[in-house]
Amino acid sequence: xxxxxxxxxxxxxxxxxxxxxxxxxxxxxxxxxxxxxxxxxxxxxxxxxxxxxxxxxxxxxxxxxxxxxxxxxxxxxxxxxxxxxxxxxxxxxxxxxxxxxxxxxxxxxxxxxxxxxxxxxxxxxxxxxxxxxxxxxxxxxxxxxxxxxxxxxxxxxxxxxxxxxxxxxxxxxxxxxxxxxxxxxxxxxxxxxxxxxxxxxxxxxxxxxxxxxxxxxxxxxxxxxxxxxxxxxxxxxxxxxxxxxxxxxxxxxxxxxxxxxxxxxxxxxxxxxxxxxxxxxxxxxxxxxxxxxxxxxxxxxxxxxxxxxxxxxxxxxxxxxxxxxxxxxxxxxxxxxxxxxxxxxxxxxxxxxxxxxxxxxxxxxxxxxxxxxxxxxxxxxxxxxxxxxxxxxxxxxxxxxxxxxxxxxxxxxxxxxxxxxxxxxxxxxxxxxxxxxxxxxxxxxxxx
Length: 448
Ligand code: MV4
Hints:
The chain is an alpha+beta fold. The protein has helices at residues 11-24, 40-44, 63-73, 89-97, 107-114, 116-125, 141-151, 174-192, 249-265, 297-304, 308-316, 396-409, 419-425, 429-432, 440-444, and strands at 4-7, 27-33, 47-52, 77-79, 101-102, 155-163, 166-171, 197-201, 207-215, 221-233, 236-242, 270-278, 284-290, 333-340, 342-343, 349-350, 353-354, 357-359, 366-370, 377-378, 385-393, 411-413.
């Protein structure tokens, strides 16, 4: 059993991990940058160590500082949260070299799945449906054009080192593809230090549906159901829900089996996500795997009654999963609303400043994960997430009603937040009817 875990992160996820540690009787060590000295994760943890100045490169991304803090504190494990170093294979490797358990997959697994070309090949070979596309990287313009001629336009050029919407280019003609291929290659080399690109058929109006996975070190793999993350804007998710209304229980079961197969094919260990795109006909395709716990893990916790962070820690300790697939069932509907310091009336421009007053919502079926409090100053250097509001209901109608009620109860004074956007969304017929795809926000939201 771990005695002490260092949390290499900040904000709500650091607070979330501290809570799991406390329930498991494990001591927590927070690290913080100078601008985060008044942060809740610092006061909530058993100990806190300052690791450097505000800019993340000098603190939350500063591997030597974090390792030094872990050694000084006597931590036997590091939880990376999401973002920052969570999907950094080198960090996972350095932790293990220093005799500290990285709570996440081993470096080889992070590398394998971080390379989207390698991941596609692994999945294809394992019989996991992938989007029709080139096998392996495309190095010659001719290969890209040949694929497009055979598959038909539109196609999408993606960087092997990209993911999460970065390094993609949609092409409708030979001319666009010739150009797009060139620029994609150059950009991939500069931004991802990997010039490899590949080409896929472009799926119009897809839904983004992902499966939560848990895999222990003994070969046990389970999925904890799906999340629909289609409500997003410029690749930033705004609302996630579980389970998706778009797929039938039969499809859900089939996709779950495929997600487990994908996990096994990657020899995955830890908590992770298998992402799919689902086209208008309901066909599903693997797109990528995330080797971290995600922001939206909490909607899965709400419908599955499982603590994903505690499972993640158990896995890292070498324990077996606390549940088998037959023990997992989903009950009701959950939605997560990301309350960001962004102005939805002003193109989601980052706001910020001081939270003059904060009143969190409560009552049945409501969970708030946050690091803010009345008087908290939001540093401008990090992401804009202030709080996650997670609501649960027995059916989706109850969940929506609760969402509205809880969003109205939430008072955050001192800055504009995304709450008015969420209230708008919950009044949209297409959303209420479960018809919103990944283009919904861009096509329908004109400001509040
Ligand atoms: C696609 C696609 C359509 N066709 N691939 C964006 C994020 C990254 N994970 C993959 N993405 C997409 N890949 C093919 N072949 C459309 C998207 C996409 C998208 C996917 C999920 C959620 C939101 C999205 C918004 C725009 C585009």
